[in-house]
Amino acid sequence: MAFTRSRDDTTAGVERPLRHPEQSEPEVRHCRAIFISDIHLGTVGCKADAVLRFFDHHSTEKLYLLGDIMDVWSNRNIFSWPKKQIAILRRVLGMAEEGVEVYYLPGNHDRAVHSLSGLDLGNIRVRREVIHETADRRRLLLTHGDAYDAFVTRHEWAARAATRIYHFITVINNLIGGLTRRKSGQLSPLSICRLVRVFSKRFTDLFSSVARTVSAEALRRECDGVVCGHMHRPQIALIGDAQYHNAGDWMEHCTALVEDFSGNLSLVRYPAFHTDSTDEGSQAEIEALMEVTAAEG
């Protein structure tokens, strides 16, 4: 069966290439479709090196950019972006010129692109939402997900403020991380940023039930499921009768969804550094803190 169910809110079973620097680079994996979301170009938290390595090791017939690719909320000046972030745009443009079908579905952080919806910019098609048919003939609704987030649609000012606070914390923690070493029993700077993001996204999800709302919409449109981003929570799950897929993000998790030529969808993870032992430890700390918080609540 093409669809596989995983535990909610985890990346269990996610493929993790590039675990150790001494290992040889993996061969290029040819995919039928790639779904990638929440790169947040223009921010200090963007893991551009991981994105570029992912594109180095994956080729595709279709590329779906599921929103928040550029973070216009945080940085409108593309000329201030690091070179690696500019390189991502060049890579996408190059893929389009080589014949890859590229779809750009704007999110809330790159909402300025919404004005171009329905247009084809060269070989890049800008759409609000798309129906994708897998190789095994399943229909999937593709969307960023912000349109089904009541917190964002009703309180955008608060969402913008929270974004600015998060990026400020990221800058401070990056500075601290460069000056201090991680001590036993303390959260690393990266973990603190993740903890803030996890709490904020879970609060949003409790408020608006994004996954359930967008899954219900997919069924209403006679689709088998949905592929989205927005929540920064890579996940494959069954919600009601809908197959729910979240591509994750490239700030904390560095994940994307890929479809093979049989129609199977799977999550692929590319850590920001060649070794992800620290990353896994940080995630374990966060999960432990979340459990304690839930118990106290």
Structure explained in plain terms:
- By secondary structure, the protein is an alpha/beta fold.
- The chain has a single domain, classed as Purple Acid Phosphatase, chain A, domain 2.
- It contains seven helices and twelve strands.
- The protein has a seven-stranded mixed beta sheet with strand order 4-5-3-2-1-11-12. It has a five-stranded mixed beta sheet with strand order 6-7-8-10-9, with helices on one face.
- Strand 11 and strand 12 form a beta hairpin.
- Helix 1 packs parallel to helix 2 and helix 5 crosses helix 7.
- The longest helix is centred in the middle third of the chain and has 24 residues.
- The N terminus and C terminus are likely disordered.
Task: Give the topology, please.
Blueprint: E1 29-36, H1 48-56, E2 58-65, H2 83-97, E3 101-104, E4 120-121, E5 124-126, E6 130-133, E7 139-142, H3 150-154, H4 156-179, H5 189-208, H6 210-220, E8 225-228, E9 235-239, E10 242-246, E11 255-259, E12 265-269, H7 277-296
Parallel strand pairs: 1-2, 2-3, 3-5, 7-8, 8-10
Antiparallel strand pairs: 1-11, 4-5, 6-7, 9-10, 11-12
Helix pairs in contact: 1-2, 4-5, 5-7
Task: Label this structure with key terms.
disordered N terminus, Purple Acid Phosphatase, chain A, domain 2, 7 helices, 297 residues, alpha/beta, single chain, 12 strands, 7-stranded mixed beta sheet
